[in-house]
Amino acid sequence: MIAWLANPRTGGLLVLAAIIAVLPLALPNNFYFDVAVRAGLNAIVCVGLNLLIGYAGQISLGHAGFLGLGAYASAVLTAHYGWNPYAAMGVGAIAVGVLAFAVGRPILRLRGHYLAMATLGLGIIISIAANTEDDYTGGPDGMTVPPLTVFGTELYGERIWYWIVGALVVVSVWLALNLVASPVGRALRSVHGSEVAAEVSGVDTARYKVLVFVISAVFASVAGSLGAHYGGFITPVDVGFIKSIELVTMVVLGGMASTYGAVVGAAILTALPQVLTWLQDYEHLAFGLILMLVMIFMPRGLIPSLGSAFRHLFIDRPETQST
Amino acid sequence: MPQKAAERAVPLLSVRGVSTHYGRIQALREVDLEIAEGELVALVGANGAGKTTLLRTISGILAPSAGDIVFDGHSILRAQPDRRVEMGIAQVPEGRQMFGPMSVEDNLVLGAFTRTKTEAEADLAVVLDKFPQLRDKQREPAGTLSGGQQQMLAIGRALMARPRLLLLDEPSMGLAPNLADETFATIRSLKAAGTTVFLVEQNASAALALADRGYVLETGRIVLADTGRALLENEKVQAAYLGL
Questions:
Q1: CB–CB contact B110 A201 (8 Å)
Q2: Which residues, including other chains, have CB under 8 Å from residue B239's CB and lie 6 or more apart?
Q3: Quick one: average pLDDT of A35-52?
Q4: Which of A263, A277, A292, B71 has its CA 20 to 30 A from that of B189?
Q5: d(C-alpha A34, C-alpha B192), whole Å
Q6: CA pair distance A189, B103, nearest whole angstrom
Q7: Domain CATH code at residue B61
């Protein structure tokens, strides 16, 4: 029973869905629902980003750029051109996928951390474009985004969005777990383990790194589109460099190469600033301190560290990395 | 230079005038060597002579700056490493390079990445029969294996590709003498089973004793080539590599 629950693809997904289903009972008002929705949107990005960082061993410092492209594609195409929001979301996701491919293909042929530099530049270019193309984006002032509609009904309010985003978090975790468990996932883990050994085992490492980079960019784009419709308003700050760093931090805090870790990291780092507001001036100090303590005492991140402690206590067998 | 291998049918692998650079540093200088089907050929040389560079050039991780590599009658210079594995060139990399957190079984299955699932499953059973110690640890992370077991896993992983040519990079490195002997016994049994092996070793005496033929590499250049036995008795080799 414990083993079945500890299996990430069956038990873990069920536990995640149960937590999302029960959580509203503990949320006293719309403000907390709003935090939960934002945490969920971040979680979707982080689940994708974790595939890249945790499994392919590559760092992207421009994921907020992909998120931003998705968000602005939805905003501009629906607000200025009257597109159907789902079509806009789809076109945004495809465009981001193509862009990620075009950037990743030449860079990921190289071994090393060149992707971090390239995505850093790309993210900054996207944020500059959002600031300066004010005919389309409203510039630094931002722009309003029409709401998403389902069967002619406009979706407003934190509580409806909570269920939409909650369901999508479960779906994206399910997708990521299946990808990791497939031969593609095995190839990705081998790339992270030893790129040379992976290549001489017949894994086309460049191809798999590009594939996972594109997938993670598309996750970010879709979350960006959803976030734009949910918030009804976007500004270049939402898609800037700091946001990219935040996303990477969420993945590392939760635990690299742990899909649930990405969700937990996103939830904690989204909620923590709200929880710490009572500290007033010391809020940022406490925030930084918590991050440092976690990384010093749990360098593998929250979920892998807690997970192996749990296994050690209750199951007592060495784990193989599979989440 | 022995002409024996060349006089036989077309060699399985022939390296022709290959030079490889790391940036401006030249690591290999016009290396020529041949390996015939079924042969066990050893390459000995000191640290930094370019042994690993030569293996990585053959497996396609490094691109040569000059020369040609012909496998089974065709130049493979333009083939990516994964294509070369598909053609039948598998490598046991230096230092074993396990995928530590992945299970022993997943490591082995990865070796058959270029092949179909059914082929992989059939060969998994064969490899586990060959290395019963790995069968006992099948579900455990590769990182928990002992050094000797990891070397078996690394060899097993390469065998999962059903190689026509097996490249071994310093398989005895970092192993206690009895485990190193065990590894050489494994290599002997591979040869007996008909596998073509290119063995790169610092342990020259053990490698040359096993080998049909051997090459000596010094600062990127092949300086001697002969049968394994003749090299073992060669005075220069004895002085430089056998400590006699």
A1: yes
A2: none
A3: 96
A4: B71
A5: 69
A6: 11
A7: 3.40.50.300
Least confident span in A169-173, B7-11, B190-194: B7-11
**Range(s) of the domain holding residue B106:** 4-241
The encoded tokens of residue A189 equal 């883990």
Please give the biggest Cα pair distance in chain A.
61
Number of domains comprising chain B: 1
User: End-to-end distance of chain B based on CA atoms, in angstroms?
Assistant: 24
Least Cα distance to A78 among A91, A65, A59 occurs for A91
Cβ-contact A146, A241 below 8 angstroms: no
State residue A85's pLDDT score.
Answer: 93
Give the helix ranges, DSSP H, for chain A. Answer: 2-6, 13-22, 30-50, 63-79, 85-107, 114-132, 134-137, 158-181, 183-193, 195-200, 205-231, 241-254, 259-275, 283-297, 302-314
CB B85 within 8 A of CB B107: no
Residue A190 neighbours by CB under 8 Å, 6+ apart: A197, A198, A201, A203, B99, B102, B110
pLDDT at position A306, please? 86
Test A190 with B91 for CB contact under 8 angstroms. no
Q: Is B79 left (phi over 0), alpha (psi -120 to 50) or beta?
A: beta
pLDDT recorded at residue B6: 45
Nearest to A294 by CA among A285, A279, A306: A306
Give the 3-state secondary structure of residue B74. strand
**pLDDT tens, B6-34?**
445 679 999 999 999 998 899 999 999 99
Domain boundaries, chain A: 2-314
Please give the biggest Cα pair distance in chain B.
51
Q: In which residue are the tokens 């990620």 written?
A: A100
Cβ atoms of B11 and B36 closer than 8 Å: yes
Query: From CA B65, how far away is CA B62, in angstroms rounded?
Result: 9
Q: Which of B22, B80, B137 to mutate to test the interface with A (most CBs of A within 10 A)?
A: B80
Give pairs for B171-178: CB < 8 Å, separation 24+.
B171/B92, B171/B199, B171/B201, B172/B201, B172/B202, B172/B203, B172/B206, B173/B94, B173/B95, B173/B202, B174/B95, B174/B147, B175/B147, B175/B148, B175/B151, B176/B147, B176/B148
The answer to whether A202 contacts B86, with C-beta atoms less than 8 Å apart, is yes
Instruction: Please list every residue in chain A whose beta carbon sits closer than 8 Å to the beta carbon of residue B102.
Output: 186, 189-190, 193, 320-321
Is the distance from CB of A56 to CB of A208 less than 8 angstroms? yes
DSSP single-letter state for residue B23: T
User: Per the CB < 8 Å rule, is A186 touching B109?
Assistant: yes
Query: pLDDT at position A323, please?
Result: 47
Class of CATH domain A2-314: mainly alpha
Helix (H, G, I), strand (E, B) or coil at A217: helix
